Inverse folding.
């Protein structure tokens, strides 16, 4: 099934780990706000129908894009945690997105996502449990004590780093996020909510340069990566 999918873009964070004067999604990356790079990558994908951008309260920086590459760009307000923002975005999707329809969720803070990786996720054929981009852990994993000393070497086999986009049926994702919220569990990604609900999302290996811009030093890396993707 090649029906175009809507993508929820959580962009309501404050970017505290960057420490900038404005939320990181609006800080300049290669001369333009970071978020615009991400939105253009998503909107330019032929199998993405529209974007639901989730904004923070009193967001004074949102440029008000209504259309990108001919795709509708809608907005709604997010919440205290990323998962609250994702749930708000899923709920705010237009009625053309049925509960059985698949949706994508992609961090505004991940501007380097590759079109080919999005396509490979979509080419999974809409598996029942959904799917997500990620990469197997390739470094040795240490658990640190409070003093920052290596306490234990954790097993590395079968460990993956989760990226976005993540792709699930709208109704199942909404229900899973609501159940986690009601249980007082702050899920760190959509797949965690779906796992709690008994699903087993498929992991699709994607490029490791699909970085999440999290600290100030990530901007230089993201700029370098974007320059090589032209
Ligand atoms: N309440 C929140 C928190 C985060 N996000 C979004 O989720 C993505 C990943 O979150 P993260 O990288 O942690 O961004 P921030 O929460 O802004 O960063 P920090 O934790 O450093 O404040 C970002 O696009 C961010 O805007 C969101 O929509 N709503
Ligand atoms: C969703 C995510 O990008 C997958 O790795 C990650 O969990 C977001 O974490 P954050 O602390 O909200 O940036």
């Amino acid at each position: 099934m090649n029906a175009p999918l809507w993508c929820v873009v959580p962009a309501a964070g404050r970017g505290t780990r960057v420490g900038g004067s404005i939320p990181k999604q609006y800080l300049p990356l290669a001369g333009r706000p970071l978020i615009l790079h991400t939105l253009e990558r998503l909107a330019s994908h032929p199998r993405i129908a529209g974007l639901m951008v989730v904004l923070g309260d009193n967001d004074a920086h949102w440029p008000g894009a209504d259309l990108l590459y001919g795709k509708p760009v809608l907005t709604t307000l997010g919440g205290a945690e990323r998962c609250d923002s994702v749930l708000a975005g899923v709920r705010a999707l237009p009625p053309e997105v049925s509960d059985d329809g698949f949706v994508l969720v992609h961090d505004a803070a991940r501007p380097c996502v590759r079109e080919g990786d999005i396509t490979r996720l979509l080419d999974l054929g809409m598996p029942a449990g959904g799917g997500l981009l990620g990469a197997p852990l390739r470094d040795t994993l240490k658990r640190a004590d409070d003093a920052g000393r290596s306490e234990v070497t954790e097993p590395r086999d079968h460990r993956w780093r989760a990226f976005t986009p993540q792709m699930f049926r709208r109704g199942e994702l909404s229900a899973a996020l609501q159940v986690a919220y009601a249980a007082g569990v702050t899920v760190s990604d959509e797949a965690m909510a779906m796992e709690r609900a008994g699903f087993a999302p498929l992991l699709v290996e994607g490029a490791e340069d699909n970085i999440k811009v999290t600290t100030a030093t990530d901007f230089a890396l993201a700029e370098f990566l974007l320059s090589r993707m032209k």
In short: The first strand starts at residue 5 and ends at 11. Residues 170-182 form the longest helix (13 residues). The chain has six helices and twelve strands.
